[in-house]
Amino acid sequence: MPVPAIPFTLVGMVSPSNITFDDSLWPLLVLRFSGIPTNQQFEEYMARRGSYLARNQKHTLIYDTTSFNVLTGEQRQRQIHWLKEHKEELRTLSLGSALIITSPVVRLLLSGVLHFSQANAPYHAARSLPDAAGWCAGRLAEAGLVVEAQRVRTHFGLAPRQGTG
Predict the structure, then answer these.
(1) Beta strand residue intervals within 17-150, DSSP E
(2) Which 8-state DSSP code applies to residue 127?
(3) Strand 18-25 vs strand 28-35: parallel, antiparallel, or unpaired?
(4) What is the DSSP letter of 151?
């Protein structure tokens, strides 16, 4: 008689990590982080994020970290450097970022990264994906991207805003 498979995690095993980009609602970019990325994955993430800046189009971002652990110290330093390196593009092209953060540790580390990078794009600490999407849709509408804002609201089942997108 076959033994049923039972899912388990070995103590000390590193959980699988993944960083996904969803630009299907561009100019909204949704980034989902899970686990702890390897240095290679993190470098690939920053290169791909740079490719979106290279489009030279205004946009908003949702960072979904609900399944995310933390960056390593080296990765945090690299992120601070990247943010400083791209400060001007981020200032002119990023309409803001909504960050879905459920972990107090991740929230604390992120506040440090934002402080040391001197990031000046608006951001919103969201409690859920619909909350994040609503905030980003508002940022798009304020920038005159009313049709795009409404597309985001419709996709996430949010009520349309009267007169502002």
Answers:
(1) 18-25, 28-35, 59-68, 94-100, 123-126
(2) S
(3) antiparallel
(4) H
Q: Helices 73-85 and 39-53 meet at what angle, rounded to 10?
A: 20
Contact of 132 with 28, CB cutoff 8 Å: no
Q: What sign does the dihedral 68-74-77-79 (CA atoms) show? A: negative
Contact predicate 40/72, CB 8 Å? no
Question: What amino acid is encoded at 46 in this protein?
Answer: M
User: pLDDT tens, position by position, for the chain (165 residues)?
Assistant: 443 333 333 334 445 678 999 999 999 999 998 888 889 999 999 999 999 999 999 999 999 988 877 778 899 889 889 988 999 999 999 999 998 987 776 666 666 666 555 566 788 888 899 999 999 999 999 999 999 999 999 999 998 765 544
User: Which of 22, 37, 98 minimizes the C-alpha distance to 67?
Assistant: 37
CA–CA separation, 62 and 28 (whole Å): 7
The pTM score is 0.80
Going by C-alpha positions, the residue among 98, 94, 96 that lies closest to residue 56 is 94
Handedness of CA 101, 69, 66, 80 (dihedral sign): positive
Number of CB atoms found within 10 A of residue 51's CB: 10
